[in-house]
Design brief:
Blueprint lengths: L17 E4 L5 H12 L3 E6 L2 H14 L7 E5 L5 H13 L5 E4 L19 H16 L1 H6 L3 E5 L3 H4 L15 H26 L4 E5 L20 H9 L7 H13 L8 E4 L7 E4 L8 H15 L5 H5 L2
Parallel strand pairs: 1-2, 1-4, 2-3, 4-5, 5-6, 6-7
Antiparallel strand pairs: 7-8
This protein binds NADP nicotinamide-adenine-dinucleotide phosphate.
InterPro entries: Ergosterol_Biosynth_ERG27, NAD(P)-bd_dom_sf, SDR_fam
EC number: 1.1.1.270
Protein name: 3beta-hydroxysteroid 3-dehydrogenase
């Protein structure tokens, strides 16, 4: 059983451990990376823009002079399967990997449907397919370290119960629907991954976490990482009782990734759902449906051409 007592500002010693965070040049990914290096871990900060990555690493080093050298940058565009494969090959070749934080995401989708160079709908490709492929490509590395993967869910899946029968929204695209469907998918896949890993005897745990409602305007200004306008500060502060900073929003993500008592197949979020200390919660009903999850798994295998090497990972 996972303990309820957990101090998010005092993590277990992670010296010698290595993690990869997608979308770590901003928002929750940046603060998760920072919390991990502060606890002694090495982190691959990954992102799609070399300049934004360099700025974020510089900020992290500025804020953490003693820990910042454990932050390394790596280009990884989750919407591009070639980029995912290349980054995975680099990481697999460098040795130990204890955890993947599958965080990158388009949170403000385009109004009109767009597709990637691989031909997939942009939001589904970025939030879901790239992470499915990355986790599959790095599964044996994770298994070698008895590691863990954390998928990013969202409380929006409790309010909009979209069944992703058409996950790439060939028909009826709206930006919001694309976003919520992608979060139904990441949550369902995170829980399905846990079932498949257990069934195959792979020593890797899969968890799902969400940050509540975490906004830039409630987050410290950091050059190169977070510079909200005065208007968004004002608007976000009006919502203070139901929001928190991205630094605090990162707490459940990091707990899911490093709490030694987390068992796999669990769902983590803030205490009051929207804000607060990280606790175990309950994923929305639609994301717990194994038939929907199995259907999504097949869609991801077909779209990415990646079939998770479960037998190989079990033998590591
Ligand atoms: N904030 C919340 O309240 C909230 C609530 C529920 C769930 N979430 C989830 O939490 C995750 C992070 O959200 P956030 O609030 O931190 O958002 P954010 O501040 O907008 O950061 C998103 C991160 O994802 C990166 N990203 C976007 N497209 C990418 C791509 N193709 N390849 C690689 N990286 C890419 C962004 O990089 P660029 O700078 O290059 O765009 C950025 O680093 C998302 O999965 C989101 O769905 C957030």
């Amino acid at each position: 059983m996972a303990r309820q007592a957990w101090n998010p500002e005092q993590l277990p010693d992670l010296t010698g451990r290595s993690y990869l965070v997608t979308g770590s040049n901003a928002g929750l990914g940046f603060f998760s990376s920072e919390q991990l290096v502060r606890a002694g871990a090495s982190v691959y900060m990954t992102g799609r823009s070399p300049n934004r990555l360099m700025d974020a690493r510089a900020a992290l080093r500025r804020r953490n002079p003693d820990a910042g050298e454990r932050a390394h940058t790596l280009l990884l565009d989750t919407s591009n399967l070639g980029s995912v494969r290349a980054a995975a090959a680099t990481v697999a070749g460098r040795g130990r990997l204890d955890g993947l934080l599958l965080n990158a995401g388009i949170v403000h989708p385009p109004k009109e449907r767009e597709t990637t160079r691989d031909g997939h709908e942009l939001v589904f490709a970025t939030n879901v397919l790239g992470h499915f492929a990355l986790a599959g490509e790095l599964l044996t590395s994770l298994a070698a370290a008895s590691g863990r993967m954390v998928w990013l869910g969202s409380m929006s899946t409790s309010m909009w119960k979209y069944d992703p029968v058409d996950p790439q929204l060939v028909e009826g695209y709206t930006g919001w629907r694309a976003y919520v469907q992608s979060k139904v998918a990441t949550t369902a896949l995170g829980l399905e991954a846990d079932r498949r890993l257990r069934a195959a005897g792979v020593d890797v745990r899969s968890e799902v976490a969400h940050p509540g409602y975490a906004t830039s305007g409630r987050t410290a200004g950091i050059v190169g990482v977070n510079s909200p306008s005065r208007l968004s500060r004002f608007a976000d502060n009006l919502q203070a009782p139901i929001t928190q900073s991205k630094e605090h929003g990162a707490w459940p993500l990091v707990r899911a990734l490093v709490d030694p008592d987390a068992e796999g197949g669990q769902f983590w979020g803030p205490k009051t759902v929207v804000r607060g200390e990280p606790r175990r919660g309950k994923a929305s009903k639609i994301t717990r449906d194994p038939e929907i999850a199995a259907r999504l798994w097949r869609v991801c295998e077909e779209a990415t051409g990646v079939s998770w090497p479960l037998e190989k990972a079990a033998a590591v």
